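Q: I'm teaching a short session on how sequence maps to structure, and I want students to see two examples side by side rather than one. Could you give me a first protein with its sequence written out and its structure tokens following it? Keep the formatting plain so it prints cleanly on a handout.
A: Of course. Example one:
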Amino acid sequence: MKTITKFILILIIVGTLVILAIKIIRPILEDRAAKNASDAVETKGKIVVRIDSWAGYYPIASQRMKKSLRKEGYLLECVDDKSDLTGRMKALASGEIQFAVATVDSYILNAEPLKFPGRIIAVIDESKGGDAIVAWKESVPNLEALKGTKSFRTAYTPNSPSHQLIKAAGTHFGIPALKSMDPSRKVETAESLEALKLLLGHKVDVAVLWEPDVSKALAAGAVKLLGTENTTRLIVDVLLVNTDYAKDHPDIVALFLKTYFRTLKSYSSGPEDLKKEMCDELKLDPSVVEKMLGGVSWVNLTDNCQDWFGIASPGRQAEQGLVDTIDSTIEILRDSGDFSGNPLPDSDPYRIMQKGFVEDLYRKGLETGFKSLDGDPAAASATQGIDHPFSELTEAQWASLREVGTLKIEPIVFQTGTSDLLLEGKEDLDKIVARLKHYPTFRILVKGHTSMRGDPEANGALSLDRASAAARYLQVTYGIDPHRIRSLGLGGTKPLPREPGESGRAYDYRLPRVELSLLSEVY
């Protein structure tokens, strides 16, 4: 080949590559220029989570959540995949999405073939009436009727929480027909509404539905055989994060969780706002939203730690409800034939859990009275000293606080039959202040008790007066904010347990007392 021909070919190849490069690079440069010339220059990245239309997921997909994350520089994209759990888990495994939601059972079923690509970092909610097995009373008056010889046609949505409810009923109540239904007697539907229509058209005897279709079936005369309002830790929704993403971007995962719990707290403080926003954004009738919300029991940060992940606050026992749920779910799935053995790696439920994110948020919250979660740095730093200020609470807010524990204290001495503190009583309160200094963010409940002898009404009044006297002493002497402390008179209604071999006289001496309990906000 002549030199000039080679030269021309090289020019053509180089030119082609330059043109391709321009086509590829130019849009990127233009996008970057446009971004730099706008407020989008502040955007740090995008967070993608796949969800479906279950009401319990609304706070994650809400505009309130999206706006909060946008202030932090992140765009939140919530993709409704119409309950395509298989596709959802594949997207999580591939890294196409960072977060996903699922029930515990659907995660185990759909993630097992993918070697469990995500970790459970929070419990979102429990179904509490959101799912139910309903039937026509004349055909199936109760669950026991399903144990008979007669065959019943059942409509349900496969791989949905309602499907898990069928399996659980089959396992727990010993109904083989629900665990492995005859193909000729089961009708699989794409959604709850389709199953409802089959029931109302008397094409099936039993239907497994979720709200608002449960209420529609009951209004039409059907009966509820079993609803999740009568179950605990059965249908549990969880938040999943891609394992690699959690390892590479722990700060973003922590931010996402912090924003979610802050959003959930705002809705729990203003439930009417939640209803209105759902009506406006989802274009639903208020009565429908009411029924949907009635079937959801959200799990806040405090309960995530203390009831589900086994993370205790000072003076409290914690439960590992998530482990129990995973274990019981696997039992149901095995009994229903979904698995022949335990599908978890090493049969260990902890392999699909990661409690560190909620634990870190919770510990920081306890240190600052949850001001760090409220997003108020100034308030978060104002936790030193026993006299730092507290905001005023309503009666409902006081009632919502959770007792952390009762401080150990010697019996506070009062003048007999009065609420007048003696010198010894004041000295005992002085000693308790040293302990209070270790817990500057907790509210204080001063509880007065009397013996069980005498007039109950008079005992109640005396116990309240004594509790109030102790509270006043702490406020006046040590500057404890009045909004932090309150008094309660219990009279003789909460006696101490009697010790073995204790004489009646000694027991009566121990009953009149004043106790100081620490209260924590539930975030």
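Q: Perfect. Now a second example for contrast.
A: Example two:
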Amino acid sequence: LLPRQFQVAVVENVNERHLNKAIWLFPLYLFAINIFVLPIALGGLMHFPQGTIDADTFVLTLPMAEQKTWLALLAFVGGLSAATGMVIVETIALATMVGNELVLPVLLRLRLLGSGAQRELGGILLGVRRATIVVVLLLGYAYFRLIGESYALVTIGLVSFVAAAQFAPAIFAGIYWRGATRIDAMTGLLTGFIVWGYTLLLPGFARSGWIPDAFVIDGLFGLSALKPYALFGLTGLDPISHASFWSLLLNAGSLVAVSLFSRQSVLERVQAATFADPYREEAGEAAGFWAGTATVSELRALLARFLGEAQAERALSDFAFANGVELSEDAEANPALVEQVERLLSGAIGSASARVMVASTVRGEALSIDKVMSIVDETSKVMEYSRRLEEKSKELEAATRELKQANDRLKELDRLKDEFVATVSHELRTPLTSIRAFSEILQQDPDLEATQRQEFLDIIVKETERLTRLINEVLDLAKIEAGSMEWRSEQVDLREPAKTAASSMSQLYSDSEIALDIALPESPVWVRGDRDRLTQVLMNLLSNAEKFCEPKLGRVALKLDYTDGRARLQVADNGPGIAPDQIGRLFEKFQQLEGAQSGKRAGTGLGLAISQRIVSHHGGRIHVASAKGEGTTFTVELPSSESAGIASTQGGIEAQH
């Protein structure tokens, strides 16, 4: 993706077989030259305290520190030579690209270069490239003067590497993805470079004092999510990694996103097929798209205009020798020669300009896109028909899948219904059996002792209460799920349901000798909802907390606060906690967890299920935080009456353990 690499590997590559060696030799070369960096870096870090000497200068400061001035001089000369060579190669590559892809197309469009075998244009090309080299060097020097002194050399290089990396999504999409379009690539490139400039380039100007640094510290418009070094709250990365992540992510993301709403033009479809499948056609077939003709002398003159007479003559001689043909001046050029001339010109003036110049020389015009498309029209129709059949097949598959899912859901609902009926029947039968057994004892033995009679009556009363509670909870749950529950909507100060629930549970806690701590704010915490139902939720949570606490040692805390427009009610106990595998089943119907203190009454397993649905109706949610041996905390969050109304959607349940 770097200009000099692209220039050597692509533009100046005259034989694709050379890539077979470059694939392993160039990485080996990079590995070899970097081996020598390791001992120098290690020696510098060991010799100088970190941060006191710029690591870029270790190659000079190490010999100077050891009084080896001759070695420092040698390293300096070598470094200067390497840097000079890099600048020369880089500026020539950039000048070639700018001249071929920017300046020459403009000159051709303005018809300033003329056409046909006119005067040589080598001087114009050379002048354009020399001017570009001067401009590039001045821009580099200006960058160094503006912000270069604020960064180490390696950092300046990394900033440029991140910029060059922005070409990756568009290049890879163009090579491998037939569905990509020009607007996709341009959108991705523009997005990537904007993010790169905002996260790396502008902060560099700010560090150098050229622009205010407020946006670096506080974020653009004072938004912390727009801090250049912590974009969208992402922290913990160095600036280079941070900018690389966001720029490439948004670059590729916007390229793909735009592709979903854009359509390829006819030309883009032809180009996509050519680039994505380059080995589909034999060499020389591409030139067959030319409908016109040209003589060898005309192509020789065209080459001479840009490459010079000597190089044009040598290129034609090489072609004749390689193909075993004789090229007479008046002979008509075959398609392979036209393609070869275009390839040679592409190395000098770029592929787009080369195609235009060859088209201006060949008599007749290149086949229009309509003519090209008419060649593959039948294939396109077959492909379109196949695509429609595939879409219909996918639609049928989707419909079948939906029907199967609906059938599976019906089976699941039927199974749940059976389980519900069986569970309710079992839960009802247990207290009824106890009531009947003790009632028969009292009926058959009227001479029972008073203490034993009272004990049996107490059991009957408790089982009756349990039966009543179960019936009420089943009815409540059924009404909520059927949408027939009657809800009151009023302004409720949550301190009142909290006090009512605590008062109702006070005797229970007193009997169990469990401490109940209540922390309520001095000012009202308003929500809009049903006072009785919210009280029911708190009583369920307090009742559950009491069950899991050990008598005399147990402690339960009821807390109410208000944060960020939401009211928070917490019920925390110091019980044995909840196992991780049980947390996910807390709010299922008829689920009774293990761990309750022995001797305490069993619940119906519906309290938390009802509580969750009540909270969800009020637009809130329940969090559960628990760990074995560390107690359990239930947190109910509700929107304040000023920030939200009662929601009709189901709230979420979140578990942490």
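Q: What should students look for in example two?
A: Point them to this: Residues 297 and 329 are 5 Å apart (CA to CA). Also worth mentioning: The radius of gyration is 40 Å.
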